[in-house]
Amino acid sequence: MSDDYIRLVPTDPNWQPDPEAAAALVAYVASLFSGPGDAVDEVKQTFYDRVTLIDAGMYMERITCPRCAGVISMDWLGDLVRENGMGFDHLDVAVPCCGAVVGLNTLHYEEPIGFARFEVSALNATRAGYELDPNELARAADLLGHPVAQILAHY
Predict the structure, then answer these.
(1) Can you give the three-state secondary structure of 2-52, one letter per residue?
(2) Which residues contact 9 (CB under 8 A, 6 or more apart)?
(3) Residue 11 near residue 148 (C-beta atoms within 8 A)
(4) pLDDT tens digits, residue range 87-100?
(5) What is the spatial distance between Cα 150 and Cα 16, in angstroms, rounded to a whole number?
(6) pLDDT (tens digit, 9 = 90+) per residue, 22-79?
(7) Are 48 and 141 a contacting pair, CB within 8 Å?
(8) What is the DSSP letter of 53?
């Protein structure tokens, strides 16, 4: 069986909300999937001690360099993740294509991913409009007190 996630993360990888704001965002996201015919298995918050890769699962297929536009192997990112255990003390790395030092969060990923110390995730959510729309993302940011990015993941 496969799982789909809608994951919301702050746009600043190091930023974390206070517990009340986090709880308000969880309640809001859950409410988005509570209409007739809508469903969600679980909506939860996760706080991380270190900046953590918030990946897109099977949607992660291609990475390119912001400096030279060279293609970067998914194996290279996988090796970095294995070395760091999904958590990173800093995001600056030398890319294999041109050797430039860039932030992992500035690489171009075919589908959005994130690096964060906090996320709210909705597991197997269903409704007519699956993704959160711009107004819903703006409301999520207001509740959290910080801009958010949406990451869709499939495992």
Answers:
(1) CCEEEEEEECCCCCCCCHHHHHHHHHHHHHCCCCCCCECCEEEEEEEEEEE
(2) 54, 114, 115, 116, 118, 119, 148, 149, 151
(3) yes
(4) 999 999 999 999 99
(5) 16
(6) 999 999 999 999 999 999 999 999 999 999 999 999 999 999 999 999 999 999 999 9
(7) no
(8) E
Global pTM value? 0.94
- Say if residue 84's pLDDT is above 90: no
Are residues 72 and 96 in contact, defined by beta-carbon separation less than 8 angstroms? yes
Return the closest-CA partner of residue 86 out of 110, 115, 107, 61: 115
Backbone angles phi, psi at 7, to 5 degrees: -120, 130
The pLDDT tens digits for 104-155 are 999 999 999 999 999 999 999 999 988 999 999 999 999 999 999 999 999 9
Dist. CA 124–CA 3, nearest whole Å: 6
Sign of the alpha-carbon torsion through 6, 12, 14, 19: negative
Residues 6 or more apart whose CB falls under 8 angstroms from that of 71 comprise 62, 63, 64, 65, 97
Please say whether the beta carbons of 72 and 61 come within 8 A: no
